[in-house]
Amino acid sequence: MAAISFARGAPAPECLDQALIADCARAALERDGTTILSYGTGGGYEPLREVLAEQHGVAANRVFVTTGGLQGFVFYAAVQLALRPGRVLVEGPTYDRPLKILARDGVEVVPIAMDDEGLDLDALEAELERGGDISFLYTIPTFQNPSGRTLGTERRRRLVEMAAQYDLPILEDDPYGRVRYDGDPVPSLHELEGGQRVTFTSSFSKTVAPGLRIGYFVVPDGLVAAYDDRAVSTYISPSLLPQATVFELIDREAFVPNLDRVRGLLKARKDAMLVALAAEMPAGTSWSSPEGGYFLWLDFADDVDAAALLTRATDAGVTFVRGSDFFPNASAGRSSARLAFSYETPERITEGVALLASLL
Ligand SMILES: Cc1ncc(COP(=O)(O)O)c(C=O)c1O
User: Is 40 in the pocket of ligand 1 (CB under 6 A)?
Assistant: First the structure.
């Protein structure tokens, strides 16, 4: 029996509608095959760029559809660091892959504290006041990876004001915002700010299928030429067939019904995990209670070493990701874990949480 994975930040196999995606791919090829099967522009499949541009209220040349959101992050970091060399501010904790990319490139990364309502803006202000060159702030304000936390609307407004006051470029990474189970939507930083300091990115990995590898970036006017240059010199154009497939999904109005189905499947998993944690975890353990997304953050009692626990848990048949993986140089998170509820069935989630609790 495969281990119960609370490590995989991927949608459950049931979320992937193979028949629908196959049908959309066929329709896209029949409709626009010669374009799709040729080289395109660096920015991606034009009809998809146009739809996304309309959703975000910008011109289509500001939308870059990339081979997954992470590829676009590589572009953004390269372009922004060349334009404005300096340290990169991130949430502590934050998505581990950008940390690895920035570490590989020798960039100084400074984690800013968070609380239950997301980024601590007083801590951010103190860092901005410290002086020295800052390249950009990377933030995942909605259903954050790894914590599941969401930045409140008031804080969003203040953050946008601070960006203007300190001339701070922001990369707003939002692959989970549409995967909401409870509560009301919050405005994006991008819409609050107007999109000249804030670059917005999202992805179809969490709403349709990660294997399609479609992310997109809405960049300020000033970054358009540099982004285009990165894209063209990296892959000439990204793979157009998956992009045209997603365009077809949106165009035939199947995106939202598919998203509703995915949300239903994942909400049941989130609820199963919260119920199991409340029933099983010993006193001294606490966790976040996200209204959407794929993850929650678990703080064990201070004397628990999450790395040692992970070794024992893996032997017992349940996995998670250590909290320290989400901080630069593993500088914090020693007694914490990220649990993904997105991948396993509710039954296996209940079983996995009980197994994990039995090891504490
Ligand atoms: C916060 C965040 N950003 C970006 C991505 C990248 O997704 P993809 O490269 O699949 O589009 C992920 C995937 O886990 C993520 O959690």
Answer: no
